[in-house]
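[step 3/7] inverse_fold.run input=structure_tokens len=154
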């Protein structure tokens, strides 16, 4: 039992370290980081940041940086919970009650991230322009998995 808990703790710690390093590595690159490079790399943004005035670019970056700062902890927590769930799922005798509880917690975190992402999109559309509140693959930085939900922008 002790080795099982140690494995879970190590997986969770590794996930936190990985999530933190990803968040730090992606912090300053705008919404296109890793998806074609730079701030104009978001698909569906009609040419990206280059089309914006310097004032709109600064507004975009300020709004996005605030969003990233506000959601970093939630995304890290989501990564930890997902690692815990994975560890429980492959355990020799899975504890269904713990799995159900973690699944609910993961859903709650994803719901909060979706709410924050929606607010980001609304604010970007209002302050930067309608083309910049849209999707980046439909997902703008909401959690772990599949390149942050399907390769969306961060």
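[step 3/7] decode complete -> sequence:
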């Amino acid at each position: 039992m002790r080795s099982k808990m140690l494995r879970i703790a190590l997986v969770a710690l590794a996930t936190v370290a990985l999530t933190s390093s990803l968040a730090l590595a992606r912090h300053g690159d705008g919404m296109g980081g890793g998806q074609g490079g730079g701030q104009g790399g978001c698909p569906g943004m009609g040419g990206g940041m280059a089309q914006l005035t310097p004032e709109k670019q600064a507004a975009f970056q300020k709004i996005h940086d605030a969003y990233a700062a506000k959601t970093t902890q939630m995304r890290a927590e989501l990564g930890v919970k997902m690692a815990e769930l994975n560890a429980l799922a492959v355990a020799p005798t899975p504890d269904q009650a713990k799995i159900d509880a973690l699944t609910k917690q993961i859903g709650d975190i994803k719901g909060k991230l979706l709410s924050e992402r929606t607010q980001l999109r609304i604010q970007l559309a209002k302050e930067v322009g309608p083309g910049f509140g849209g999707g980046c693959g439909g997902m703008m930085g909401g959690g772990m998995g599949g390149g942050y939900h399907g390769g969306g922008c961060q």
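[step 4/7] annotate
DSSP finds three helices and no strands in the chain.
Confidence is low (pLDDT under 50) at residues 25-46, 136-154.
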